[in-house]
Amino acid sequence: MKDTAKLHRILVGQLSKLDLDREGTPSPTAWREFLDVLSTAYAAADDERDMLKRSIDVSSGEMRGLRDVLSQQVMLDTLTGLPNRVALIRHLDQSLSTSARVGRGLTILYVDLDGFKQVNDSLGYAVGDELLVLAGQRIRVCLRQGDFVARLGGDEFVVVCQNGPDSAGTPGIADRIGSQLGAPFPIGEHHAVVSASIGLATTSDSTATSEDLLRQADLAMYHAKVRGKARTAVFDESMQLVVDTKFSVRNALGRAINQQELRVLYQPVVSLADERVIGAEALVRWERPGFGLLSPDEFIPIAEASSLISAVDCWVLQEACRRGAQWCEQGATIAVNLSARTLEHDDVVNALSEALRRTGIAPQHLSLEVTETALLTGNGTANRNLGRMRDLGVKLSIDDFGTGYSSLSHLQRTDIDVLKIDRSFVSLMDVDESSATIVNSIIAMGHALGMTLIAEGVERPSQAALLREQGCDAAQGWLFGRPLLASDFDEVFGEGVVRKPSAG
Asked: CA 196 to CA 171: how far, in whole Å?
C-alpha cells in the first residue's frame, strides 16, 4: 500500500513536469514522452544501484583481505617472523583443549638465551637482532612435525610439543636446542656466543591453563639459570614452593621495617696485638613473629633481589650510628655493610649525611663495608657515591676480600682504608699451607697500600696465632665473640677484652 501511494506521487509529479492535466485526456504523444522519461529515469536508477552493489562487493572483498592480512600480522613477531605471544597463547589454549579431549599430554619448553645482553652491549643491537633471527631458525630445525615455536619476547622462545607415542623424546628436543644455540653464531665479521637455559613443564591434569604451563616452565628455566646456565630443568612443585616462600618473605619484610621487627647485633672486632676490643660490625637480624630470630641468609638475598635492600641498609646505618655514637666517643669503630644495590641508590649519600648529623657520631669512627664484587662491578653512580661518602670523612672497607677479582690499581683508585680477609681463607690457614700463603700475601699487599687488615671468621686460637705472626692488625669471629645485643656489647666494650668461649 505504501509503495502504491509513493508511485502515485511520482506519477503526479511527472505529469506536472510535462504540463499534463491529470483530469483531462493526454494525447498519445504526451503519453509516449511521459513513458520515455519514466523509463529513462528507472534505467538510470537501476544502473546506479548495480554500480553501488558492485562497489560494495569490491569494498567488502578488500576489507576481508585487509582484515586477514592484519590478523596475520598481529600473530607474528616482526623481527623473527615466528608466531608471537598472542599466537602462542591461542595455540596453547587450543592444544590444551584438544589434549583434554583426547587424553593426551602437552609439554612446553621455555628457552632463554644466556649471555644475550652481553652480545647487545659489546657487538651492538643489530648483531643482537640478527642473532635472534638465527636462533629462531635453529630452534625450528630441532622440532618434530606438529611441534610449535614462538618468540615470547626479548631473548625468550617457547616450544609447544604434543605428547604422543614419542613423548619420551621431548627432553631430546631440549638437548638438541641447547646444542644448536650453544654453537657460535657467525654474524658479519663477528662470532657471537650464547647458551640456552631451558625449562620444561608438562600438563599433569586436564585443569591446567596456558598461564599455569608458562609459569611452571618459566620457573624451571629460572632454576636452570641459578644452577649455572646452559642446562635444562624440569618443573616440580618444590620450585613453586620456593617462589611462594620468597613472595611471602618479601611482603613481610616490607612491613617489618615499619613495624620495628629488625634488630642490630654487634660482633666484636679485636686488636690481635693485645686482644682488646676496638670496634664492632653491625649485623642485621629479623625477629619475625611466629618464626623467631632470622639470620641474614634467610632474608637478605630476597631483599637484594628487590628494592627493599636499600631500605634495610639505611635503617641499619641509622640504628648503628645511634647506638654506636657513645662507643665511638671512646675510640671504637663501627662497621656497617652496604649492598651493591644500595651503593647505586641516589639517596644513599643523603641517608649517610643525615645519620651523621642526627646521631653526632664522628665520621672517622664509622666504616662502610662493600664487597669486592660490588666495588668492581659498580656503575658510575656507585663509584661517585663512594667518593662522596669518603668526602664526608667515613672509612671505606672491602668485605670478604679474596673472593672477587679486584686489581691493585682498582684498590688504589678507590682509596680503601680497610681490607677484611674472607673467612674461606682464614678457616683453613692453620691446616692448609696454600691458604696460609694467600692470607700472608693479602696482609703484605694491604700494608703496602697503607690499609688496615682485619681477618674474618677466626674460630681457633691457632688461627689467631698465625694471623698475629703474619702481622694482621685485627680479627673477628666466634673465638672473640658472637654477635651481641647492644646492651651486651656495652658490657664487653666496657671491660675492654672479650671473654673467650671455653674449650668445652
From this structure: 14
